[in-house]
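Dear colleagues,

I hope this message finds you well. In preparation for our joint manuscript, I am sending the Reverse transcriptase zinc-binding domain-containing protein (Arachis hypogaea) sequence together with its predicted structure, so that both groups work from identical material. I would be grateful if you could confirm receipt.
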Amino acid sequence: MGSTPSKRDTMLPGKSSISTITVFHQLEPESTEHALLLCPWTRAAWFGAQIQCCPTAHTVTSFGKWIMDLFEKMKVCTGTDYELCSSRVGFLAWGVWKARNLAVHHRSKPNPFLVINKAKQMETEFADSAEVPAITSMDTRRTVRRVTWRLPLLGWIKCNVDAAFLEVFSGGATAAVLRDHVGNLLTASNSRIAASSPLAAEALAVREAV
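The corresponding structure tokens are as follows:
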């Protein structure tokens, strides 16, 4: 369970109204869209990566809508490579988010090329781990299997939730992802919370999802 950046210095995914200023682009108000898509260095990362997107103020109204529109276009254009291409979006977005938080908290200078390379590294490591065969112990005759996400039953929807808690601020954030019985992403959400413990944050994540 990770910790979220401070409210004073940064923002939480999905929230676009926090009135703070990015440390590396002083002319724009901080927002989810600006921090992850529209800041000059983040735009360079999105365009320079394999997916070659170019978010602009004219094409981005909200981070969530931009991502969902991108996934819809990928379904049409990438065919059987959709899972691979969509995963690249996730790895790159995570890389941008981490680099942005390092810039806020450690005053490091974001490097789009480094972000792209780290995203590619995460993609490679994930692919390698997914291809590792089950290991059979000769002593116990038991098969050790990787724990993976499982599809819900036909007609059901599965909701996965998580929470982040930062004790010093007595709060954190929750996130939820809903998928159908074939694994299609239906919707996702996140929100800031006030909580007294990690367990309370996890409970609030379930409540927010419901």
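For the figure legend, we might mention the following. Residues 82-106 form the longest helix (25 residues). The two ends are 21 Å apart (CA to CA).

With kind regards,
E.M.
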